[in-house]
Amino acid sequence: MVEEKNNEMMHDMPNEMKGAKPLPPHMDKEMPPHMDKDMPHGPGMTPDKDMAPELETKLTFDESVLKKIVNRTSGEVAGVLSLEGGMLHDMTDFFRKNEDPTKGVAVAVDDDQNVKVELDATMRYGEDAPAVFAEVTKAIVRNVKEMTGMTVIGVSMHVKDMLTEEEIARQEDDADDHDDAKDEVRMTRDDKDLQPA
């Protein structure tokens, strides 16, 4: 009779369980109502998802990261030559490779979600400033959202100068001369280091 009952139970089981060993006697007993023998138990393992502690997460960005995104984004828009911080007379930084990527940008962050941006820009002479500003604004809003998930709620741009092609060429020459002078000083120092004592 017991064998017939076991055969009936085996017939109703899924194929992968038919060859399984029976539960040991201490586990075959009825489990307390709050525990389910099919759920994991032990320290750190809770059978009830509602009882599991909620994972707390928070992603924040340093203002310099936001400034860098805004600076790089603005620099990709035709018509914007550079963003300038403070005095404009030193345009040579624009043409150097080691330019400060946060220069000319101020940001204010509200509740780690909303950003206001202020720019000091130098534009190419003859450009349609309102059209360039609209394009810069659109690009900043898009890139800040895509890269950080934050929402830009305000953009203001102060145009500090509009440079002609001649002024741009002169600034590039000045920057090249300045870099050449730096290279000469560096080479002279290196030559002194290589001479025997």
UniProtKB/TrEMBL annotation:
<protein>
    <recommendedName>
        <fullName>Stress response regulator gls24 homolog</fullName>
    </recommendedName>
</protein>
<feature type="region of interest" description="Disordered">
    <location>
        <begin position="165"/>
        <end position="197"/>
    </location>
</feature>
<feature type="compositionally biased region" description="Basic and acidic residues">
    <location>
        <begin position="179"/>
        <end position="197"/>
    </location>
</feature>
<feature type="compositionally biased region" description="Basic and acidic residues">
    <location>
        <begin position="1"/>
        <end position="19"/>
    </location>
</feature>
<feature type="region of interest" description="Disordered">
    <location>
        <begin position="1"/>
        <end position="29"/>
    </location>
</feature>
<comment type="similarity">
    <text>Belongs to the asp23 family.</text>
</comment>
<dbReference type="Pfam" id="PF03780">
    <property type="entry name" value="Asp23"/>
</dbReference>
<dbReference type="InterPro" id="IPR005531">
    <property type="entry name" value="Asp23"/>
</dbReference>
